[in-house]
Amino acid sequence: MLYVVIAFLWTSIWFYLLFGGADFGAGILELFTTERNKSRTRRTMYRAIGPIWEANHMWLIIAIVILFVGFPLIYSTMSVYLHIPLVIMLLGIIARGTAFAFRHYDAVVDDMQVVYNRIFVWSSFITPLFLGIIGASAVAGRIDTNAHSFVQAYIFSWLDWFTVAVGFFTVAICAFLAAVFLIGEANNEKDRIRFINKTRSSNIIAIVFGGLVFVAAQFEHIPLVTWVFGNPVGIIAIIAASLSLIVLWYLLHKGRTKILRLLAGFQVTMILLTVTYEHFPKIVLFKDGTYLSLIEHHGEHKTILALGWALLIGSVFILPALFYLMYSFKKPKTENS
Fold first, then answer.
1. Residues in CB range of 259: below 8 A, 6 or more apart
2. What GO molecular-function term can you cite, just one (predicted)?
3. What is the pTM of this model?
C-alpha cells in the first residue's frame, strides 16, 4: 500500500504541474501581452479556465494531505526549512484566486479592475516561480539542519542560482502549456495564430532557461548532468521529449494543432520523470549528505494502509466527477442551453 500512496503523490504533483501549470501560464501570457490584445486574451482565458480554475488546486491539496498524513517527518521538515517560499507560494495562490474572482464577477467595473488585473498576472508569475524553487530546494542539498543562524537555516536553504533558475524554468513551462492549451480555445483565426506564436516564443524561452538550469547547477556544484543522463530512464525520457518537441514544431508549422496538447503534456511528463527517477525514493537531500526517503521515513503502517484505501476509494468518486465537470463545460452548447 505504501507504493500506492507514493503513486498518488507523484500523480497529484504531475496533474498539478499540467493543469495548474497551464492555469498559471494563462496569467503569465497575459502579463506579457500587449495592451491592445489583453482583453481578447482574457476572454479566451475565461472561456478556457473560468469554470474549473479552482478545481486545479485539488491536486496540490491531495499532495499536501498525503505528505501530512503519510510522511509527517518529510512534511514537517519541508514546512520548517522552506517555510518562506512556501508561504509566498500560498499567498500567491490566494491573491491570484481572489483577483480572478473579483475582476471577473465584480458587479461594479471601476478603477479597481486595474488593481485586480495586476494582482492576477503577477501572482500568476510568482506562484510557479516559487513552486519551482521549492522543488529544486528539496533536491539541491542546501538544507542545513545544523545551521546556527536564521539566514543559513531559512534563506540559503532555498535561495541560490540553481533554485532560482529552476523557478524561472517552471514559469516558462507554465507559459508554454497555457499557450498550447489556448490555441484550441481561440474562436477566430487571428487569435489562433497569436497563440501559436506565443507557443513558439514560450517554448524557446523554456529551452533557454532549461539550459541556464544546467549552467547554474554547474556553478553551484550540483551534479545535474549525472542526475539526468546517468541512468537509462533519464536518457530515454530526454530523447523522447526532444523528439516530441520536433514533432510539435512541425505540426505548428503545418497548422495542425489537434494533438499539440498531448505533445506538450508528454514533454512535461518526461521532464518530471527525469527529475524524480534519479532520486527516488529520496525526496529531501540535506547539506550533510543525509536525506529523507519516501520508503524509509513514512508514517505508521496502519496510517499508510488507511491513507491508501482512502485515496483509492476517493478516486473512484472524485475523478469521474472532475472529468465530467471538464466535459460539461467543454461540450457544444445547444440553442436552448
1. 251
2. oxidoreductase activity, acting on diphenols and related substances as donors, oxygen as acceptor
3. 0.89
